[in-house]
């Protein structure tokens, strides 16, 4: 009986060997490498991805090569997408330093928040930039409410301008 058990084990052995299959999920490390190759800067360095792709993501593997390009005009985010129908896309933020002082923070025609501040209060409302400028520059803005008149405001950061009222 022992030869029969041994022969049966040999016949069943090839069935127990796992077969090579495609990975069930896209490899986040491969996405990190693709972003580093696209930007030409390693992960965590200025100009490269700010942090690795989240390892908890369970993305469907791509049958086609990844599509990688800039997202937005500021070149501070990379768009990585699987070109397969109905697949996924990721927005990978880059590690950037503050640009030159004259870099525009607000563009003409852009929607902004107008903060009107004074001693002990602050009120904000939506508005539109009538001029563009860098942080700290004074530009003309107007409220988007009906009959909003142009006023001058200082750019605090991208998307936020401030009008300060004195307490006197």
Automatic annotation (TrEMBL):
Stretches assigned to coiled coil: none
Repeat among keywords: no
Location of the Flagella basal body P-ring formation protein FlgA SAF domain: 102-163
Signal peptide (from-to): 1-22
Pfam families cross-referenced by the UniProt entry: ChapFlgA
InterPro entries membership: SAF_FlgA
Keywords: Cell projection, Cilium, Flagellum, Signal
Protein name: Flagella basal body P-ring formation protein FlgA
Keyword Transferase among UniProt keywords: no
């Amino acid at each position: 009986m022992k030869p029969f058990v041994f022969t049966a084990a040999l016949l069943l052995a090839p069935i127990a060997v796992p077969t090579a299959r495609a990975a069930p999920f896209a490899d986040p490390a491969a996405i990190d490498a693709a972003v580093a190759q696209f930007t030409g800067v390693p992960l965590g360095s200025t100009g490269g991805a700010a942090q690795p792709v989240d390892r908890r993501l369970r993305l469907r593997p791509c049958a086609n090569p990844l599509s990688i390009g800039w997202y937005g005009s500021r070149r501070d985010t990379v768009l990585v997408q699987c070109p397969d129908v109905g697949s996924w896309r990721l927005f990978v933020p880059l590690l950037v330093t503050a640009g030159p002082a004259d870099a525009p923070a607000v563009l003409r025609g852009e929607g902004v928040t107008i903060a009107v501040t004074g001693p002990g209060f602050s009120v904000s409302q939506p508005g539109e930039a009538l001029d563009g400028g860098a942080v700290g520059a004074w530009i003309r803005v107007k409220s988007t409410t009906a009959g909003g008149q142009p006023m001058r405001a200082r750019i605090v950061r991208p998307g936020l301008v401030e009008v300060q009222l004195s307490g006197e």
